Amino acid sequence: MLELRHLRTLVALRNAGSLVDAAERVHLTQSALSHQIKDLEDRLGSPLFFRKTRPVRFTPAGQRLLTLADQVMPQFRMAERDIARMAGGEERGRLHMAIECHSCFQWLMPTIDQFRDHWPDIEVDIPSGNAFDPLPALARGQLDLVITADPQPLPDVHYEPLFRYEGLLAVAKQHPLAKHAFIQPKDLASQTLIIYPVEHTRLDVFTKFLTPADVHPREIRTAELTIMMMQLVASERGVCALPNWAMTEYLERDYIKARPMGETGLWGTLYAAVRRELMEHPWMTDFLSTARDTSFSVLSGIRPT
Protein backbone atom coordinates (compact mmCIF):
# COMPACT_ATOMS: atom_id res chain seq x y z
CA MET A 1 0.00 0.00 0.00
CA LEU A 2 1.35 3.39 -1.01
CA GLU A 3 1.85 5.72 1.96
CA LEU A 4 2.75 9.38 2.38
CA ARG A 5 6.14 8.41 3.80
CA HIS A 6 6.95 6.69 0.50
CA LEU A 7 6.27 9.90 -1.40
CA ARG A 8 8.40 11.87 1.05
CA THR A 9 11.23 9.37 0.56
CA LEU A 10 11.09 9.62 -3.24
CA VAL A 11 11.07 13.42 -3.11
CA ALA A 12 14.08 13.35 -0.77
CA LEU A 13 15.85 10.99 -3.17
CA ARG A 14 15.14 13.30 -6.09
CA ASN A 15 16.30 16.40 -4.25
CA ALA A 16 19.38 14.81 -2.70
CA GLY A 17 20.50 12.88 -5.76
CA SER A 18 21.79 9.86 -3.84
CA LEU A 19 20.61 7.27 -1.34
CA VAL A 20 23.18 8.39 1.23
CA ASP A 21 22.08 12.02 1.23
CA ALA A 22 18.38 11.13 0.99
CA ALA A 23 18.68 8.88 4.04
CA GLU A 24 20.07 11.81 6.04
CA ARG A 25 17.18 14.02 4.99
CA VAL A 26 14.50 11.57 6.12
CA HIS A 27 16.46 10.55 9.24
CA LEU A 28 16.94 6.89 8.28
CA THR A 29 20.00 4.73 7.79
CA GLN A 30 20.88 4.03 4.18
CA SER A 31 20.01 0.38 4.77
CA ALA A 32 16.56 1.24 6.15
CA LEU A 33 15.89 3.61 3.25
CA SER A 34 16.93 1.02 0.68
CA HIS A 35 14.70 -1.55 2.36
CA GLN A 36 11.74 0.83 2.35
CA ILE A 37 12.14 1.54 -1.36
CA LYS A 38 12.68 -2.13 -2.24
CA ASP A 39 9.57 -3.07 -0.28
CA LEU A 40 7.55 -0.46 -2.19
CA GLU A 41 8.94 -1.67 -5.52
CA ASP A 42 7.97 -5.24 -4.65
CA ARG A 43 4.43 -4.13 -3.79
CA LEU A 44 4.09 -2.14 -7.02
CA GLY A 45 5.87 -4.73 -9.14
CA SER A 46 8.11 -2.14 -10.77
CA PRO A 47 11.51 -0.56 -10.11
CA LEU A 48 11.34 3.14 -9.25
CA PHE A 49 14.86 4.28 -10.13
CA PHE A 50 17.94 3.05 -11.94
CA ARG A 51 20.62 1.74 -9.59
CA LYS A 52 24.21 2.98 -9.67
CA THR A 53 23.43 6.31 -11.32
CA ARG A 54 24.38 9.67 -9.84
CA PRO A 55 22.43 11.78 -9.70
CA VAL A 56 19.57 9.32 -9.37
CA ARG A 57 17.52 8.69 -12.52
CA PHE A 58 13.93 7.56 -12.04
CA THR A 59 12.01 5.01 -14.08
CA PRO A 60 8.63 5.95 -15.60
CA ALA A 61 6.97 4.42 -12.51
CA GLY A 62 9.17 6.53 -10.24
CA GLN A 63 8.43 9.66 -12.25
CA ARG A 64 4.70 8.96 -11.95
CA LEU A 65 4.95 8.75 -8.17
CA LEU A 66 6.98 11.96 -8.06
CA THR A 67 4.24 13.69 -10.05
CA LEU A 68 1.75 12.42 -7.49
CA ALA A 69 3.98 13.62 -4.65
CA ASP A 70 4.19 17.11 -6.17
CA GLN A 71 0.38 17.20 -6.27
CA VAL A 72 -0.41 15.63 -2.91
CA MET A 73 2.27 16.86 -0.52
CA PRO A 74 1.56 20.60 -0.88
CA GLN A 75 -2.13 19.84 -0.25
CA PHE A 76 -1.22 17.78 2.80
CA ARG A 77 0.98 20.58 4.12
CA MET A 78 -1.78 23.13 3.53
CA ALA A 79 -4.25 20.97 5.45
CA GLU A 80 -1.81 20.78 8.37
CA ARG A 81 -1.58 24.59 8.40
CA ASP A 82 -5.35 24.98 8.24
CA ILE A 83 -5.84 22.59 11.14
CA ALA A 84 -3.16 24.42 13.14
CA ARG A 85 -5.00 27.70 12.54
CA MET A 86 -8.30 26.12 13.56
CA ALA A 87 -6.75 24.81 16.75
CA GLY A 88 -5.24 28.18 17.61
CA GLY A 89 -8.03 30.39 16.35
CA GLU A 90 -7.35 33.30 14.00
CA GLU A 91 -3.98 33.91 15.53
CA ARG A 92 -2.26 37.24 15.08
CA GLY A 93 1.35 37.87 15.82
CA ARG A 94 4.62 39.45 14.82
CA LEU A 95 7.67 37.94 13.20
CA HIS A 96 10.47 40.49 13.12
CA MET A 97 13.77 38.91 12.19
CA ALA A 98 17.42 39.67 11.60
CA ILE A 99 19.94 37.76 9.51
CA GLU A 100 23.55 37.23 10.50
CA CYS A 101 24.19 35.47 7.20
CA HIS A 102 24.90 37.56 4.12
CA SER A 103 24.16 34.63 1.79
CA CYS A 104 20.82 33.58 3.27
CA PHE A 105 18.42 35.58 1.12
CA GLN A 106 18.57 32.93 -1.63
CA TRP A 107 16.37 30.61 0.47
CA LEU A 108 14.90 32.99 3.04
CA MET A 109 12.92 35.15 0.62
CA PRO A 110 10.98 32.19 -0.87
CA THR A 111 10.36 30.99 2.69
CA ILE A 112 8.90 34.36 3.71
CA ASP A 113 6.74 34.57 0.56
CA GLN A 114 5.25 31.13 1.21
CA PHE A 115 4.75 31.87 4.90
CA ARG A 116 2.90 35.12 4.18
CA ASP A 117 0.51 33.28 1.87
CA HIS A 118 -0.50 30.89 4.64
CA TRP A 119 -0.30 33.18 7.68
CA PRO A 120 -1.54 36.58 6.45
CA ASP A 121 -2.30 37.80 9.98
CA ILE A 122 1.32 37.48 11.10
CA GLU A 123 3.27 40.69 10.58
CA VAL A 124 6.61 39.81 8.94
CA ASP A 125 9.43 42.34 8.80
CA ILE A 126 13.22 42.48 8.56
CA PRO A 127 14.16 45.75 10.30
CA SER A 128 16.92 47.60 8.48
CA GLY A 129 19.99 49.18 9.99
CA ASN A 130 22.56 47.97 12.48
CA ALA A 131 21.36 49.78 15.57
CA PHE A 132 21.37 46.60 17.63
CA ASP A 133 23.23 43.33 18.09
CA PRO A 134 20.65 40.78 16.83
CA LEU A 135 20.88 38.02 19.44
CA PRO A 136 20.74 40.29 22.53
CA ALA A 137 17.90 42.18 20.78
CA LEU A 138 16.10 38.85 20.39
CA ALA A 139 16.48 38.13 24.11
CA ARG A 140 15.13 41.61 24.92
CA GLY A 141 12.07 41.08 22.72
CA GLN A 142 13.01 43.60 20.01
CA LEU A 143 13.27 40.74 17.52
CA ASP A 144 11.45 37.42 17.25
CA LEU A 145 13.87 35.34 15.18
CA VAL A 146 17.52 35.55 14.17
CA ILE A 147 19.24 33.46 11.49
CA THR A 148 22.73 32.76 12.82
CA ALA A 149 25.64 30.36 12.60
CA ASP A 150 27.05 31.59 15.90
CA PRO A 151 24.74 30.61 18.80
CA GLN A 152 25.32 32.34 22.12
CA PRO A 153 24.06 31.18 25.52
CA LEU A 154 21.18 33.55 26.21
CA PRO A 155 18.28 33.08 28.64
CA ASP A 156 15.01 31.87 27.11
CA VAL A 157 16.44 31.64 23.58
CA HIS A 158 16.03 28.39 21.65
CA TYR A 159 18.33 27.51 18.73
CA GLU A 160 16.58 25.43 16.09
CA PRO A 161 19.10 23.83 13.70
CA LEU A 162 18.14 24.28 10.04
CA PHE A 163 20.94 22.55 8.13
CA ARG A 164 24.67 21.89 8.04
CA TYR A 165 26.89 23.49 5.41
CA GLU A 166 30.52 23.34 4.37
CA GLY A 167 32.68 26.45 4.21
CA LEU A 168 34.88 26.49 1.10
CA LEU A 169 37.73 28.73 0.01
CA ALA A 170 37.09 30.49 -3.30
CA VAL A 171 40.18 31.14 -5.42
CA ALA A 172 40.83 32.30 -8.97
CA LYS A 173 40.96 29.51 -11.56
CA GLN A 174 44.65 30.13 -12.18
CA HIS A 175 45.56 30.59 -8.50
CA PRO A 176 48.26 28.21 -7.16
CA LEU A 177 45.89 27.10 -4.36
CA ALA A 178 43.45 25.83 -7.01
CA LYS A 179 45.81 22.87 -7.47
CA HIS A 180 45.59 21.87 -3.79
CA ALA A 181 43.32 19.01 -2.74
CA PHE A 182 42.47 21.01 0.38
CA ILE A 183 43.61 24.22 2.06
CA GLN A 184 45.65 24.34 5.26
CA PRO A 185 45.67 27.40 7.56
CA LYS A 186 49.30 28.18 6.72
CA ASP A 187 48.32 28.52 3.05
CA LEU A 188 46.45 31.74 3.88
CA ALA A 189 49.39 33.43 5.63
CA SER A 190 50.50 34.95 2.32
CA GLN A 191 47.01 35.73 1.00
CA THR A 192 44.59 38.65 0.97
CA LEU A 193 41.42 37.34 2.61
CA ILE A 194 38.18 38.98 1.47
CA ILE A 195 35.40 38.93 4.09
CA TYR A 196 32.05 40.53 4.79
CA PRO A 197 32.30 43.65 7.02
CA VAL A 198 31.57 41.82 10.28
CA GLU A 199 33.59 40.98 13.37
CA HIS A 200 36.16 38.24 12.88
CA THR A 201 34.72 36.38 15.86
CA ARG A 202 31.56 35.74 13.81
CA LEU A 203 33.34 34.11 10.87
CA ASP A 204 34.17 30.39 10.84
CA VAL A 205 37.29 30.95 8.74
CA PHE A 206 38.78 32.71 11.77
CA THR A 207 37.20 30.96 14.77
CA LYS A 208 37.45 27.38 13.44
CA PHE A 209 40.35 27.55 11.00
CA LEU A 210 42.90 30.36 11.27
CA THR A 211 42.82 31.38 14.93
CA PRO A 212 43.28 27.84 16.37
CA ALA A 213 46.36 27.51 14.13
CA ASP A 214 47.60 30.99 15.11
CA VAL A 215 47.70 32.03 11.45
CA HIS A 216 46.93 35.52 10.17
CA PRO A 217 46.29 36.47 6.53
CA ARG A 218 48.73 38.88 4.96
CA GLU A 219 45.89 41.35 4.39
CA ILE A 220 42.14 41.53 5.01
CA ARG A 221 39.77 43.25 2.60
CA THR A 222 36.00 43.66 3.02
CA ALA A 223 33.16 43.57 0.51
CA GLU A 224 29.43 44.02 1.14
CA LEU A 225 28.07 41.67 -1.52
CA THR A 226 28.85 38.11 -2.54
CA ILE A 227 29.06 39.06 -6.22
CA MET A 228 31.68 41.70 -5.37
CA MET A 229 33.70 39.10 -3.50
CA MET A 230 33.52 36.72 -6.47
CA GLN A 231 34.68 39.45 -8.86
CA LEU A 232 37.64 40.24 -6.63
CA VAL A 233 38.54 36.56 -6.36
CA ALA A 234 38.22 35.94 -10.10
CA SER A 235 40.53 38.91 -10.80
CA GLU A 236 43.15 37.50 -8.37
CA ARG A 237 42.78 40.28 -5.81
CA GLY A 238 42.28 37.84 -2.96
CA VAL A 239 40.57 34.69 -1.75
CA CYS A 240 37.41 34.31 0.33
CA ALA A 241 35.67 31.71 2.50
CA LEU A 242 31.94 31.25 1.95
CA PRO A 243 29.27 28.60 2.52
CA ASN A 244 29.19 26.07 -0.29
CA TRP A 245 25.71 27.07 -1.46
CA ALA A 246 26.76 30.71 -1.89
CA MET A 247 29.28 29.68 -4.56
CA THR A 248 27.09 27.29 -6.57
CA GLU A 249 26.20 29.75 -9.32
CA TYR A 250 29.81 30.89 -9.79
CA LEU A 251 31.20 27.36 -9.77
CA GLU A 252 28.65 26.21 -12.36
CA ARG A 253 29.71 29.10 -14.60
CA ASP A 254 33.38 28.14 -14.09
CA TYR A 255 33.99 31.64 -12.75
CA ILE A 256 36.12 30.54 -9.79
CA LYS A 257 37.43 27.40 -8.11
CA ALA A 258 36.60 26.24 -4.58
CA ARG A 259 38.62 24.06 -2.24
CA PRO A 260 37.81 22.45 1.14
CA MET A 261 39.38 24.02 4.22
CA GLY A 262 41.16 21.29 6.14
CA GLU A 263 41.45 17.63 5.24
CA THR A 264 37.95 16.83 6.57
CA GLY A 265 36.38 20.13 5.56
CA LEU A 266 35.11 23.04 7.62
CA TRP A 267 31.48 22.37 8.55
CA GLY A 268 29.06 24.60 10.39
CA THR A 269 25.37 24.65 11.31
CA LEU A 270 22.88 27.39 10.54
CA TYR A 271 20.29 28.03 13.25
CA ALA A 272 17.07 29.90 13.69
CA ALA A 273 17.26 31.53 17.12
CA VAL A 274 13.79 32.00 18.62
CA ARG A 275 12.52 33.08 22.03
CA ARG A 276 11.18 29.95 23.74
CA GLU A 277 7.74 31.45 24.34
CA LEU A 278 7.22 31.77 20.57
CA MET A 279 7.98 28.09 19.94
CA GLU A 280 4.48 27.30 21.27
CA HIS A 281 2.79 29.06 18.34
CA PRO A 282 1.84 26.92 15.32
CA TRP A 283 2.82 29.70 12.93
CA MET A 284 6.39 29.69 14.28
CA THR A 285 6.58 25.90 13.96
CA ASP A 286 5.35 26.23 10.39
CA PHE A 287 7.86 28.97 9.55
CA LEU A 288 10.75 26.81 10.77
CA SER A 289 9.47 23.80 8.85
CA THR A 290 9.00 25.88 5.70
CA ALA A 291 12.50 27.35 6.08
CA ARG A 292 14.02 23.90 6.35
CA ASP A 293 12.07 22.50 3.40
CA THR A 294 12.84 25.51 1.20
CA SER A 295 16.54 25.34 2.05
CA PHE A 296 16.83 21.77 0.83
CA SER A 297 14.85 22.49 -2.32
CA VAL A 298 16.94 25.49 -3.46
CA LEU A 299 20.44 24.98 -1.99
CA SER A 300 23.14 22.56 -3.08
CA GLY A 301 25.59 20.81 -0.80
CA ILE A 302 23.78 21.22 2.53
CA ARG A 303 23.05 18.38 4.94
CA PRO A 304 20.45 17.68 7.62
CA THR A 305 21.48 18.43 11.18
Automatic annotation (TrEMBL):
The keyword Transcription applies. GO terms for biological process: methionine biosynthetic process. Its main location: cytoplasm. InterPro entries: LysR_HTH_N (IPR000847), LysR_subst-bd (IPR005119), MetR_PBP2 (IPR037406), WH-like_DNA-bd_sf (IPR036388), WH_DNA-bd_sf (IPR036390). SUPFAM superfamilies: Periplasmic binding protein-like II, Winged helix' DNA-binding domain. GO terms for cellular component: cytoplasm; protein-DNA complex. It is found in: Cytoplasm. One of its GO terms (molecular function) is DNA-binding transcription factor activity. Residues 2-59 form the HTH lysR-type domain. It comes from the Bacteria. The keyword Nucleus does not apply. Keywords: Activator, Amino-acid biosynthesis, Cytoplasm, DNA-binding, Methionine biosynthesis, Repressor, Transcription, Transcription regulation. Belongs to the LysR transcriptional regulatory family. This is HTH-type transcriptional regulator MetR. The lineage of its organism: Bacteria, Pseudomonadati, Pseudomonadota, Gammaproteobacteria, Oceanospirillales.
